[in-house]
Specification:
Elements (H helix, E strand, L loop, with lengths): L6 H33 L6 H4 L1 H29 L2 H33 L5 H31 L5 H6 L11
Helix pairs in contact: 1-3, 1-4, 1-5, 3-4, 4-5
Keywords: Membrane, Transmembrane, Transmembrane helix
Protein backbone atom coordinates (compact mmCIF):
# COMPACT_ATOMS: atom_id res chain seq x y z
CA UNK A 1 0.00 0.00 0.00
CA UNK A 2 1.39 3.38 -1.02
CA UNK A 3 1.56 6.19 1.56
CA UNK A 4 2.36 9.86 1.20
CA UNK A 5 5.33 10.32 3.54
CA UNK A 6 8.03 12.97 3.61
CA UNK A 7 11.71 12.35 2.82
CA UNK A 8 12.74 12.27 6.49
CA UNK A 9 10.20 9.57 7.32
CA UNK A 10 11.26 7.56 4.27
CA UNK A 11 14.86 7.78 5.46
CA UNK A 12 13.74 6.49 8.87
CA UNK A 13 11.90 3.66 7.11
CA UNK A 14 14.98 2.76 5.05
CA UNK A 15 17.35 2.64 8.02
CA UNK A 16 16.33 -0.79 9.40
CA UNK A 17 16.69 -2.35 5.95
CA UNK A 18 20.09 -0.73 5.39
CA UNK A 19 21.26 -1.97 8.79
CA UNK A 20 19.95 -5.43 7.95
CA UNK A 21 21.82 -5.47 4.64
CA UNK A 22 25.07 -4.46 6.35
CA UNK A 23 24.54 -7.20 8.93
CA UNK A 24 23.83 -9.78 6.24
CA UNK A 25 26.61 -8.86 3.87
CA UNK A 26 29.34 -8.10 6.38
CA UNK A 27 28.84 -10.27 9.44
CA UNK A 28 26.86 -13.23 8.11
CA UNK A 29 28.89 -13.73 4.94
CA UNK A 30 32.05 -13.30 7.04
CA UNK A 31 30.71 -16.00 9.35
CA UNK A 32 30.20 -18.39 6.43
CA UNK A 33 33.65 -17.58 5.05
CA UNK A 34 35.20 -18.13 8.48
CA UNK A 35 33.59 -21.54 8.84
CA UNK A 36 34.62 -22.59 5.34
CA UNK A 37 38.17 -21.31 5.86
CA UNK A 38 38.34 -23.24 9.10
CA UNK A 39 37.37 -26.46 7.35
CA UNK A 40 40.32 -26.09 4.97
CA UNK A 41 42.89 -25.25 7.64
CA UNK A 42 45.78 -27.65 8.09
CA UNK A 43 46.65 -29.00 11.53
CA UNK A 44 48.93 -26.61 13.36
CA UNK A 45 48.38 -23.71 10.95
CA UNK A 46 47.68 -20.16 12.06
CA UNK A 47 44.21 -20.35 10.51
CA UNK A 48 43.39 -23.47 12.48
CA UNK A 49 44.57 -21.76 15.67
CA UNK A 50 42.19 -18.80 15.17
CA UNK A 51 39.29 -20.83 13.78
CA UNK A 52 37.02 -20.19 16.77
CA UNK A 53 37.61 -16.44 16.49
CA UNK A 54 36.84 -16.53 12.77
CA UNK A 55 33.47 -18.09 13.54
CA UNK A 56 32.48 -16.58 16.87
CA UNK A 57 33.38 -12.92 16.29
CA UNK A 58 31.08 -12.41 13.26
CA UNK A 59 28.37 -14.51 14.93
CA UNK A 60 28.53 -12.39 18.09
CA UNK A 61 28.42 -9.14 16.10
CA UNK A 62 25.50 -10.37 14.01
CA UNK A 63 23.57 -11.43 17.10
CA UNK A 64 24.24 -8.02 18.68
CA UNK A 65 22.85 -6.27 15.61
CA UNK A 66 19.81 -8.58 15.62
CA UNK A 67 19.23 -7.91 19.34
CA UNK A 68 19.47 -4.16 18.70
CA UNK A 69 16.96 -4.48 15.86
CA UNK A 70 14.53 -6.48 17.98
CA UNK A 71 14.79 -3.97 20.83
CA UNK A 72 14.37 -1.08 18.42
CA UNK A 73 11.32 -2.78 16.88
CA UNK A 74 9.74 -3.07 20.32
CA UNK A 75 10.26 0.66 20.96
CA UNK A 76 9.58 1.91 17.41
CA UNK A 77 5.80 2.40 17.75
CA UNK A 78 6.37 4.91 20.56
CA UNK A 79 9.59 6.51 19.30
CA UNK A 80 9.18 6.72 15.53
CA UNK A 81 6.53 7.59 12.95
CA UNK A 82 4.17 4.78 11.99
CA UNK A 83 5.87 4.28 8.61
CA UNK A 84 9.28 3.73 10.23
CA UNK A 85 7.79 1.45 12.90
CA UNK A 86 6.17 -0.66 10.17
CA UNK A 87 9.52 -1.09 8.43
CA UNK A 88 11.26 -1.98 11.71
CA UNK A 89 8.58 -4.66 12.11
CA UNK A 90 9.24 -6.01 8.61
CA UNK A 91 12.96 -6.28 9.27
CA UNK A 92 12.67 -7.94 12.65
CA UNK A 93 10.28 -10.57 11.29
CA UNK A 94 12.72 -11.38 8.51
CA UNK A 95 15.60 -11.71 10.93
CA UNK A 96 13.50 -14.27 12.77
CA UNK A 97 14.00 -16.40 9.65
CA UNK A 98 17.76 -15.95 9.97
CA UNK A 99 17.67 -16.96 13.63
CA UNK A 100 15.77 -20.12 12.67
CA UNK A 101 18.51 -20.84 10.12
CA UNK A 102 21.15 -20.40 12.85
CA UNK A 103 19.27 -22.91 14.98
CA UNK A 104 18.81 -25.31 12.05
CA UNK A 105 22.53 -25.15 11.29
CA UNK A 106 23.41 -25.80 14.91
CA UNK A 107 20.91 -28.68 15.00
CA UNK A 108 22.47 -30.21 11.87
CA UNK A 109 25.94 -30.00 13.41
CA UNK A 110 24.66 -31.50 16.66
CA UNK A 111 22.77 -34.24 14.86
CA UNK A 112 25.74 -35.17 12.69
CA UNK A 113 27.93 -35.19 15.80
CA UNK A 114 25.47 -37.49 17.56
CA UNK A 115 25.32 -39.77 14.52
CA UNK A 116 29.15 -39.84 14.46
CA UNK A 117 29.69 -38.14 11.13
CA UNK A 118 33.07 -39.31 9.86
CA UNK A 119 34.32 -35.89 8.80
CA UNK A 120 33.90 -32.88 11.12
CA UNK A 121 34.46 -30.67 8.07
CA UNK A 122 31.26 -32.03 6.54
CA UNK A 123 29.37 -31.02 9.70
CA UNK A 124 30.54 -27.45 9.31
CA UNK A 125 29.74 -27.35 5.59
CA UNK A 126 26.18 -28.50 6.34
CA UNK A 127 25.89 -25.67 8.86
CA UNK A 128 27.18 -23.14 6.32
CA UNK A 129 24.75 -24.32 3.65
CA UNK A 130 21.67 -23.57 5.76
CA UNK A 131 23.03 -20.19 6.82
CA UNK A 132 24.08 -19.20 3.32
CA UNK A 133 20.69 -20.06 1.85
CA UNK A 134 18.92 -18.10 4.59
CA UNK A 135 21.28 -15.13 4.18
CA UNK A 136 20.61 -14.98 0.44
CA UNK A 137 16.82 -15.26 0.89
CA UNK A 138 16.75 -12.56 3.57
CA UNK A 139 19.07 -10.34 1.48
CA UNK A 140 16.68 -10.49 -1.47
CA UNK A 141 13.68 -9.79 0.78
CA UNK A 142 15.46 -6.89 2.47
CA UNK A 143 16.53 -5.32 -0.82
CA UNK A 144 12.91 -5.35 -2.00
CA UNK A 145 11.79 -3.89 1.34
CA UNK A 146 14.45 -1.19 0.98
CA UNK A 147 12.92 -0.27 -2.37
CA UNK A 148 9.45 -0.23 -0.78
CA UNK A 149 10.63 2.05 2.03
CA UNK A 150 12.23 4.38 -0.50
CA UNK A 151 9.01 4.62 -2.50
CA UNK A 152 6.71 5.06 0.53
CA UNK A 153 5.15 1.59 0.42
CA UNK A 154 4.16 -0.77 3.22
CA UNK A 155 2.98 -4.34 2.50
CA UNK A 156 -0.74 -4.97 3.05
CA UNK A 157 -0.01 -7.64 5.68
CA UNK A 158 1.88 -5.14 7.82
CA UNK A 159 -0.86 -2.52 7.36
CA UNK A 160 -3.42 -5.10 8.55
CA UNK A 161 -1.27 -6.10 11.53
CA UNK A 162 -0.11 -2.59 12.43
CA UNK A 163 -2.84 -0.18 11.22
CA UNK A 164 -1.72 3.36 10.38
CA UNK A 165 -3.10 6.30 12.34
CA UNK A 166 -5.82 7.93 10.24
CA UNK A 167 -4.73 11.52 10.85
CA UNK A 168 -0.99 10.96 10.28
CA UNK A 169 -0.85 8.78 7.17
CA UNK A 170 -3.21 8.91 4.25
CA UNK A 171 -2.96 6.30 1.48
CA UNK A 172 -2.41 7.77 -1.98
Amino acid sequence: MQFDVDARTRRQGRFPHELAMVNLLVFNLMLCAGVLAGTMARKGSLLEHYKLWLVNAPLAMSLRVIAYMMRRTAHAPADAPWFAAAHWSITSRRFGVLLVAYLAGAALVGLSWLLSQASPNLQEVMCVATKLIAVMVVAVLESSALFQANSGEVPYGIVARLPPPAEAMRPT
